[in-house]
Design goal:
The chain is α+β, with helices and mostly antiparallel strands. It contains twelve helices and nine strands.
């Protein structure tokens, strides 16, 4: 009976532990080669690229970050809206009747009927100045005998412009709001890019944890099967009187311990599967938690060549956090320039130009307030012709100067802006140092985990040979059931550590790509 058990055990060990396809030669789709009952039941086989694409489409964190980015873009439009020209128009009718207050009122009961229609156009300029154009029109009719035009048409076209020469020239409050909004949009874009990178990293890390949990269950189940085989063999030998009953108790205890390991491994599969569902599924889907998924890839032992200095340079150039800090530094630098400008005196160049026109039916009287002797027809066109003839005009040009005595508020604002700039510069330098350290740590971790794979592979093979040797000794009565159990346990631990080192190596590669900012390149993802 011992010989039969030995043959069964040797075949099982070689197939179950040494036959694990984690040698870098297995294609990525090896887990999906043969259709299973799960396939027939509607299980979705996921490779890494599919999982990432589903996560980018459905993950709520990415949706939130994308909406924040879009909202910041709208802030830019709102800030630039201050430069949009403003057109306005007003129309007004006025009719009035009033008793005469003197002989010069022009009528016993003074009646007026006025219609006004005015148009204006104004705009803020990027230079800090502004202009204002007004086109005014009035039609007035009255029974006042002293009016020479009745009805009378008044037209006026005027333009005013103001341009700061010192304070607010180029650097003004509107420009500050635009720059802050533009930089806010840039920051939101970098934050969105970082969120996408984090999600891709999370999906890859979770995917390998998911694969590990499935493979770890496989190892635990195989270890349990070996313990059950040993228990069955020991019971037979106790029945025939060639083994003490205590050996059966030891084997039963080992079976119970390994059943516990299987239970824990099954829980790990459920937990890692739920994590994958959370990352990739549409939360509004009815089968959010019920969708059956299985990994379609295995970790491969691809070699990764790392140039540490180049990796640090790449990280400093491509990490969104560094780019975000550079934008913050640009904002602080603009604030320094803006607050420095606000310390200057306010000197504004002011200019205006106006044209006037008058038209209507001209009334000629024989004396002041006398009877009408002639009437020359006219109208609104006469007013416009006179207006654009440039005969009746007004213009002005001047300077406005103002400067607060004891400009402590502007001085304090400038000093604060300088302090904020220096602080942000220190923050950027600190981030660069931290990122360089992260690159070095993850690079070493990649190399360490690669070495662990080889050492654990050797340890696994040696544990297998030890198991074989222990079994041969057991056959000739030179070993005990306890030592067989211990050898099985050590082999299972070695197999698990080998699997863990392979998974850790793949996860460390993911971490290295994340800290260098290149994680999206592998999957050809562009953030726009």
């Amino acid at each position: 009976m011992k010989r039969n058990y030995s043959l069964h055990l040797g075949v099982a060990l070689s197939l179950l532990f040494l036959g694990t396809p984690l040698n870098g030669q297995t294609p990525a789709s090896s887990l999906a080669q043969t259709p299973t009952q799960a396939d027939l039941a509607g299980t979705m086989k996921l490779d890494m690229q599919q999982a990432i694409e589903m996560a980018l489409e459905n993950n709520l964190d990415v949706v939130i970050s994308r909406l924040a980015y879009q909202a910041q873009g709208e802030n830019v439009g709102r800030a630039k809206g201050a430069y949009n020209p403003l057109f306005s128009a007003d129309f007004n009718n006025l009719r009035s009747r009033a008793p005469a207050s003197s002989q010069l009122s022009g009528a016993t009961t003074l009646t007026n009927f006025n219609t006004a229609y005015n148009f204006s156009w104004q705009q803020e300029l990027s230079t800090g100045g502004n202009y204002f154009i007004v086109f005014e029109n009035l039609r007035a009719s009255t029974n006042n005998v002293f009016f020479s035009f009745n009805p009378r048409f008044d037209s006026a076209l005027s333009a005013q412009i103001a341009q700061p020469i010192l304070q607010n020239r180029q650097l003004n409050p509107i420009k500050q709001q635009v720059v802050v909004a533009q930089n806010g949009e840039r920051i939101a874009r970098h934050q969105f890019q970082a969120e996408v990178m984090d999600l891709v990293s999370d999906v890859e890390q979770a995917y390998w944890d998911w694969v590990f949990s499935i493979r770890d269950l496989d190892v635990n189940q195989k270890s349990l099967q070996l313990a059950r085989d040993l228990l069955r063999n020991n019971r037979i030998q106790v029945e025939v009187g060639t083994m003490a009953p205590i050996d059966v108790l030891e084997a039963e205890a080992e079976v119970a311990a390994r059943e516990n390991g299987v239970i824990i491994a099954e829980e790990a599969i459920a937990r890692t599967t739920d994590e994958m569902r959370r990352l990739i599924n549409d939360p509004s889907a009815l089968d959010f938690w019920g969708l059956q998924i299985e990994p379609a890839e295995e970790p491969l032992l691809s070699e990764v060549e790392i140039d540490l200095d180049e990796a640090v340079r790449t990280a400093l150039a491509r990490r969104p956090a560094i780019a975000e800090s550079h934008v913050e530094l640009d904002t602080r630098n603009f604030n320094v320039r803006y607050t420095k400008n606000q310390k200057l005196p306010r000197v504004d160049l002011i200019g205006s130009y106006a044209l006037n026109g008058l038209g209507g039916d001209e009334i000629i009287r024989d004396a002041f307030g006398g009877g009408i002797i002639d009437e020359i027809p006219g109208g609104y066109n006469d007013s416009l012709e006179q207006l654009f003839s440039n005969e009746f005009r007004d213009w002005s040009l001047g300077l406005i100067f103002s400067y607060p005595l004891g400009n402590s508020s502007a001085d304090a604002a400038h000093a604060q802006a300088q302090a904020d700039y220096r602080r942000q510069r220190a923050v950027l330098e600190s981030q660069e140092l931290v990122i360089a350290q992260q690159v070095r740590i993850t690079a070493r971790l990649v190399q360490t985990n690669r070495k662990r794979i080889e050492s654990n592979r050797v340890a696994r093979e040696l544990m297998f040979r030890r198991m074989e040797a222990e079994q041969k000794k057991f056959e000739v009565g030179m070993s005990t059931s306890f030592l067989i159990v211990q050898a099985q346990r050590d082999l299972a631990v070695a197999a698990g550590e080998y699997l863990q080192s392979v998974i850790d190596y793949n996860k460390s590669i993911v971490a290295f790509r994340r800290v260098t900012g290149t994680i999206l390149d592998k999957h050809q993802i562009n953030v726009r």
